[in-house]
Amino acid sequence: MSDSVKLSERPPLDIILVEDDDGDAKAIRRALTRAKIANPVMRVVDGIEALGLLRGETGTPPDSYILLIDLNMPRMNGIELLEEIRIDPLLKEAVAFLLTTSSDERDRAAAYAHNVTGYIQKQNAGSDFVDLIGTLDHFWRIVELPDMRLDRIA
């Protein structure tokens, strides 16, 4: 039997990591492994790839997921991705956390204007993102997330 657990011991919840920096992506995956969180992680490198995944253009989108979105990415940044998600009737309820190095109040305001669940500065996420993963684990243990399949059926 594996010591790994799924976040909050609920039905499968995929983590969609939208991150162009290989080092940060690897550090987040390592933090998940160290925390023994076995949820599937799907990584895309920018907002355009994320939309393709979420809209089913590049395969079947996950039934239930949360998004960890980097702010500064090529082609489509995190705010632009959030804009697209919030106007899409099938995606608008997606739970999204924005990860960034930016401390610019305008970036924070733009993120919350697009109903981001949390604005997390990478430098405050703990050594190797351990605090970030711990926070997300606690969040998922007490919060009921929407089942994205219901929007696709309706």
From TrEMBL:
<protein>
    <submittedName>
        <fullName>Response regulator receiver domain-containing protein</fullName>
    </submittedName>
</protein>
<feature type="domain" description="Response regulatory">
    <location>
        <begin position="14"/>
        <end position="137"/>
    </location>
</feature>
<dbReference type="InterPro" id="IPR052893">
    <property type="entry name" value="TCS_response_regulator"/>
</dbReference>
<dbReference type="Pfam" id="PF00072">
    <property type="entry name" value="Response_reg"/>
</dbReference>
<dbReference type="GO" id="GO:0000160">
    <property type="term" value="P:phosphorelay signal transduction system"/>
</dbReference>
<dbReference type="InterPro" id="IPR001789">
    <property type="entry name" value="Sig_transdc_resp-reg_receiver"/>
</dbReference>
<keyword id="KW-0597">Phosphoprotein</keyword>
<dbReference type="InterPro" id="IPR011006">
    <property type="entry name" value="CheY-like_superfamily"/>
</dbReference>
<feature type="modified residue" description="4-aspartylphosphate">
    <location>
        <position position="70"/>
    </location>
</feature>
